[in-house]
Amino acid sequence: MNSGLEDVVAAETVLSDVDGEGGRLTIRGQPLSALAGRKAFEEVVHLLFQGFFDDLPDPEHLAAMLGQARTDVFDRTRTLLPVLAGLPVYDAMRAALAPMPDGITLDDALRLVAAPAVLIPALLRQAAGQEPIAPDPARSHAVDVVRMLDRDKGGAALGAYLVTVSDHGLNASTFAARVVASTQAGLTSAVLAGLGALKGPLHGGAPGPVIEMLDGIAAEGDAQAWIDRALGRGDRLMGFGHRIYRIRDPRADALKAALRTLDRANDRLAFAEEVERIALVALRQRKQSRVIETNVEFYTALLLEAVGFPPDSFTGVFAMGRVVGWIAHAREQALTGRLIRPKSLYIDEQARAA
Ligand code: ACO
Fold it and tell me: Closest Cα to residue 305, out of 315, 314, 318?
């Protein structure tokens, strides 16, 4: 039995390819290096949505539609905020997305892309006792998110992050979204499935614990001792290892490059690089049968921290980028008209016991 479905091909996709041996991510024919830090998030939304919505306009017009969607979502968000008060960001996001219309149009899709971008800054401000800042549809998506956080720097770095995590083959959350879409449920249902799968620490829940690890190491002042103790207990080091990559995750370097554009991140980055170096040596020594390299979540944690997001919002911010991939995959799957319905192997416990 292959309970993790390793190497099982469960979908055909034109959206992205993860080359685990070569350490390459290709999104619609373009290497990640040609997209992250080079293309606006909106352009990548356009790239991923092509062929899945009949009425997809040119990229410029799509960016304007996404800006308008942020404004539409903001009005709804404001009325929801009192009900969401006190909930952790991820739980509030799940609750806020659930009642959205479960359609399959471009408008439905753009509202779902806009929702996390508007909701997270509003929730963070509410937690600090502040009023939400309304979106500015004329700004780029990432710059507007940073503006809604009441920050003036970090838009370019956040844009590079959102592009970097926009799609990544048949990862757990994307697969969950495709399974739901295969039943011909709408996009909100598919996105909620993706969001549910993203939460766990083996997938999108890792970057918060990366900060805990870095803070724990900083407090102790001895990375080697902290890491040896964690591995000695059998813990996994968050931000390391991957099901597909047998070489460094190319997204880690894309994010590191984006981080370097934020001056205030430099000291933390130098510290994290030292922790990474010690962790990789320790992992190589202890796990000789498995190549364990740095994954996207390690530098995600640093980048989102430097932009101004608190650790408990990191999984939600991941969803802010990955929602585009979930939607494109959901459309691609639904258009095949084929229900995903594998088999299970029944173990007859009574016959076994007899
Ligand atoms: N730290 C320590 N040991 C590890 C790590 C890690 N980060 N990752 C894998 N291992 C070890 C396992 O303990 C196991 O060791 P064993 O054979 O001695 O029992 C061996 O490597 C193989 O592990 P698997 O679970 O088979 O590897 P898998 O392909 O399922 O793991 C995963 C992928 C889940 C990402 C894993 O590397 C992990 O848990 N990493 C930490 C969490 C994390 O960073 N998640 C984010 C992933 S990126 C993303 O989803 C966006």
Answer: 314
pLDDT mean over 266-278: 93
Residue 27: closest CA among 13, 42, 8 = 13
210 CA to centre of ligand 1 in angstroms: 14
CA-based angle 127:91:49, to the nearest 5? 105
Closest CA to 242 of 319, 294, 299, 170: 294
What DSSP assignment string belongs to 266-286?
HHHHHHHHHHHHHHHHHHHHH
- pLDDT tens, 214-223? 999 999 999 9
Locate tokens 């709804």: which residue? 76
Phi, psi (rounded to 5 degrees) for 31: -65, 150
Catalytic residues: 242, 297
H-state helical runs in 85-222: 89-97, 106-127, 141-148, 155-164, 172-181, 187-198, 207-220
For ligand 1, whether the C-beta of 199 sits within 6 Å is no
Using CA atoms, how far apart are residues 253 and 257, in angstroms rounded to an integer? 6
pLDDT (tens digit per residue) in 17-73: 999 999 999 999 999 999 999 999 999 999 999 999 999 999 999 999 999 999 999
**Is the CB of residue 318 below 6 angstroms from any atom belonging to ligand 1?**
no
| Residue nearest atom 21 of ligand 1, based on CA coordinates | 290
H/E run at residue 27: strand 24-27
The pTM of this model reads 0.95
